[in-house]
Amino acid sequence: MLGNFPILDVNEVVELAAISMAVTFGETMGSTAEELVEAGVIDRIVPSWREVKNPEQWAALILPHRNSLIEREPEDIQERFLQICYKSTYYGKIMFLIAILMEFVVISVV
Questions:
Q1: CA distances for 93 relative to 8, 47, 48, 89, angstroms
Q2: DSSP 34-83
Q3: What confidence score (pLDDT) does residue 91 get?
Q4: Percentage of residues in the chain with pLDDT exceeding 90?
């Protein structure tokens, strides 16, 4: 899939979206697919995957993750979110580019 931060596994796309919703809504996270759609589930899907399924289908895939996620501390599930992101070959590369550009600017200003 194309995108700024490609995620190639649909299961990881679902897990990232479920984590995002659980951290945002906590125990008030919708408990039905309809409630997840109303809460904007499609906005939690990696952009390059949004058109692969409709919002109802994404919500149905996310819903089974709800109970286990809302019972955990946000810090724990945020760690899982980062673990998925760490797998990407792009993870951290923008940081190096910024550091290089900032060093160049500092050198140029001096």
A1: 18, 20, 20, 8
A2: HHHHHTTGGGGS-GGGTTTS-HHHHHHHHGGGHHHHHTS-HHHHHHHHHH
A3: 65
A4: 55
